Amino acid sequence: MYEGIKSPTIHSPRTIGEALSILNRTPDARLWAGGTYIMSRPDAYPGKDASAIIDLAGIPELKKITRNDRFVEIGAMVTASQLTNTGKLLLSDLMLDTLKSTASPLYRRQLTIGGTLCTPDIRLSLPTTLAVLESAAEVRYLQRSRIITRWIPIARLYGKNGALLMPPKSILSKIRISLDMPGFQRFRVIDHPMLAPRDSVLFAFQCQGTQGTLSRARFCFTYPTAGFHQSREMEALLSGQDLPLSPDKVRKFSSQLVMEIARMHPGVTPLQLERSRRLFAEVLHDIDVMAMEK
């Protein structure tokens, strides 16, 4: 039964520099954060693949949460549960709703922020919302024995097809989220992204609606295995619109968006396109309701 199964070498670095050195010596090693993704894969440990594992749990720097007047910084090893419990005074409702939708309370205890962002072959809820919040990730890697630090917008961590674009042999160390939040925010998810990736749609939206005008519109659609979509053109088109929007405009914007998604992401299914159209129209309707209540 256990023939051919091998135990990997486990590395337990105490600093990011030490972890990067190990990663450069053993480029096929897996980074172990909470382990939720690795253990869900069919080739997970124990298995015939004896790739080394770099356990990041012993690096204190990756577990910190700090803030100032402008933003909050969250270490990559902070769990979704910790962030939900401690971030109620720091984070927007959009971020908290996203974290709560990610998994069950038990699963969120193991799910780390960095691990969620860096899954290699599937996009989940958190990147969707962080892209809308215009957050950034601190990424570190070695270059000629020196540690190089780069801040990369979350939206640029992924290609149009959702592929992870992290620099080779790098570690995401923390994320930075602005504390400047517009007044209207929504997060929606249809179907479980891990269990039904070809049907699931994840959607985050935020804007400001003041003095009868829509402004600062930002949104992102994520299709777990098919695409990661933001549209600066549509955001610019929405920003400056008078509120409430007419039913004709809601239909026009929703149809235009779906045509754009279909053109840019051929892997998105017809069901996902229709769900995207309905989600977008629903949010625009909610903005109208907000505007009429003021």
Automatic annotation (TrEMBL):
Keywords: FAD, Flavoprotein. Pfam families: FAD_binding_5. Residues 3-182 form the FAD-binding PCMH-type domain. GO terms for molecular function: FAD binding; oxidoreductase activity. This is Molybdopterin dehydrogenase FAD-binding protein.
